[in-house]
Amino acid sequence: MIPDSGVAALAVVLLLLLIALRTPIFVALAVSGIAGLIGLDGLSGVELVPLSLVAQLQNYALVAAPLYILLGEVLAVSGLGRDLFGAAYRWFNRVPGGLGASAVGSSTVFGAMSGVSISSVAVIGRMAVPEMLARGYAPAFASGSVAASGALAMLIPPSLMFILYSSVTGVSIAELFAGGLIPGLLLAALMIVYVVLRAKVSPAQAPRVDERFTWRERLSALIKISPALVLIVLVLGSIYTGFATPTEAAAVGALAAFAVTGWVYRKLGWANLRTVFVSTAHVTASILAIVGAAFVFTQMLVAARIPDAVSTFVVGLDISPYLVIAAIMLVLVLLGCLVDAASLLLVVTPILVPAIEGLGFDPLWFGVLLVINLEMAVITPPVGLNLYTLKSVVPGLDLADIFRGILPFLAIEAGMLALVTAAPALATWLPGLIS
What we know:
Largest sheet: none
InterPro entries: DctM, TRAP_DctM
Structural class: mainly alpha
GO molecular function: transmembrane transporter activity
Order of helices and strands: HHHHHHHHHHHHHHHHHHHHH
Keywords: Cell inner membrane, Cell membrane, Membrane, Transmembrane, Transmembrane helix
Membrane topology: Multi-pass membrane protein
Number of helices: 21
Strand content: under 5%
Number of strands: 0
Subcellular location: Cell inner membrane
């Protein structure tokens, strides 16, 4: 008779095989999870799956997910992305690589409203990359700055990944949002510094643009995007002051996004409304399908007592806990090359968090580390969704250029991962103030 751990191992092998065969990830997770449950307890092992699945999807924390997705989709059709990029360019145009720095800056602000990285890449990429290419920027330089900075939406609140992490662990969404803010802004600053230094050292990669703007034009551009800035303050301010829960803030933010898009930008015609609701339904259904399927797979792992076994093994290791963290981060980076970010988070979190707590680490801090890892996953070939999203909105780009352009930003992400590991206060100080 195969031991429970052996059944779980076979289920994991089946999952990897299905992923290798390009099976949709939610199907791969569900099939391997159900197969494992049958292997553990026979057909009776799956009797409670439907009720457990419904209970998981009724998690109140998950209500925020479709609302933030709706908020991002409404802003995507507003034309706000163009204004954000234009405003950033008026402030960064005199520095080397000004267009690249503008792409990072506008992606950062858009990410602080949408929470979904591919939305940021699509909205900013379709304007910024053609503009950079027209000004003589190298394709790798242009694509790398957009694909990498688009991933900031995963770390800078409101982040869909933090919502999913909270739904699994019970860690406060508001504290997770606060924990990601400082690392996210610091990462954006490092990306801008890299872009400027790279353009200064290799001006052929990013030729200087002889274009000047007056202070009046710069201030006018800021005024034009002020509704977006008010929206960020409205959503995040209401959360951090305790005036609203993250879910309530998401609802208010979505309504405000409709107001901004309809009254300020005049872009809420029937065609755009249809696009918004269809896209929101599609993305939400995809996310919730993965959440449900990942829960089935996790239920199988719990039935096989894998989280307990991993926790006992890790805690019993006679090595520095930080070496364990480093090993976990390395494994997550490798897994991120093969599995999409949401699926990876939902599968590994129930396994790793008990071990992390057993080592005496803060699960909130680990959640920030995990999301930085996931940022690397969405810009790492061959599965990196941001890379293919950028290719879809700028078809003229060569995938080889996109892959080459992302490499320096992967190094920056790895540096941030090491920095937050060495200085946990970067992720825990701000949540401590609001808790």
